[in-house]
Specification:
This protein has 3 helices and 4 strands; from the N terminus they run βαβαββα. The protein is of the alpha+beta class.
């Protein structure tokens, strides 16, 4: 099974169906005009959940079993609350530069 790698540029959201925080992250990035790719993980979880979790553990550096799983420029950010704080800092740095 090939799992989609996080993008080198922009946000990558690993998402699953029925995940309210996944929807919140996508909406927040959309309203902030930040680019992102969504990777639907339903199939990964159904086919081989342990392989998917192992892939994420290697990418992240530790076990992580929550959705969404968000990366920015191939760097792990976290879930909804961590991404929200991260985006707030990005937007503030944009404002400081203008």
């Amino acid at each position: 099974m090939d799992i989609t790698e996080p993008s080198l540029i922009g946000f990558t959201i690993y998402s699953k169906s029925g995940c309210s925080n996944c929807t919140k992250v996508k909406n927040m990035l959309k309203t902030s005009n930040l680019s992102f790719n969504v990777v639907d993980c339903d199939e990964y979880i159904l086919e081989n959940k342990e392989f998917f979790l192992s892939f994420m553990e290697k990418k992240i550096g530790h076990s992580y079993r929550f959705f969404p799983i968000v990366f920015h420029d191939n760097k792990f950010i976290g879930g909804f609350s961590e991404t929200s704080e991260y985006v707030e800092k990005i937007l503030l740095s944009f404002e400081d530069n203008f």
